[in-house]
Design brief:
By secondary structure, the protein is mostly beta strands. About 0% of the residues lie in helices and about 60% in strands. The protein has no helices and eleven strands.
C-alpha cells in the first residue's frame, strides 16, 4: 500500500516562510511527476507547482518567484519552500504523485496540510 504524508504546514505571518514536505512510502517502484496542489475554502483545488523525475519544475503564476519545489528521489520525498507568503496563500496543501506500485501506475494523494497566513 502506498502512502503520501505531508508535513510542515502551520500558521505564519504575511511575509514569512514555510517548508512543506511530502514523503511517499510503501510498495513504490518508481515515482514520475510529483505535484503540490492547494484548495482554499470555497475554491477549487489548483495546481501550485510540479516537478518531474528529472527535476524540471513548473509553477502557477501566482507563486512564481516565491515558491520553490524540489525532490529527493532516493528518499521518495518532495518539498515546497514557500517564501514571502501572502494571506491569499492560505489553503490546504496536498501532495500528489504519479507513480508505479506493484506493476500498476496511478495517481496518489496525501491527506493535506493546512497553511494559514495572517495579515
Amino acid at each position: 500500500q502506498v502512502q503520501l504524508v505531508e508535513s510542515g504546514g502551520g500558521l505564519v505571518q504575511a511575509g514569512g516562510s514555510l517548508r512543506l514536505s511530502c514523503a511517499a512510502s510503501g510498495n513504490i517502484f518508481r515515482i514520475s511527476t510529483m505535484n503540490w496542489y492547494r484548495q482554499a475554502p470555497g475554491k477549487q483545488r489548483e495546481l501550485v507547482a510540479g516537478i518531474t523525475r528529472a527535476d524540471t519544475a513548473n509553477y502557477a503564476d501566482s507563486v512564481k518567484g516565491r515558491f520553490t519545489i524540489s525532490r529527493d528521489n532516493a528518499k521518495n520525498t518532495m518539498y515546497l519552500q514557500m517564501n514571502s507568503l501572502r494571506p491569499e496563500d492560505t489553503a490546504v496543501y496536498y501532495c500528489n504523485a504519479d507513480l508505479n506500485s506493484l506493476g500498476l501506475r496511478g495517481q496518489y494523494w496525501g491527506q493535506g496540510t493546512q497553511v494559514t497566513v495572517s495579515s
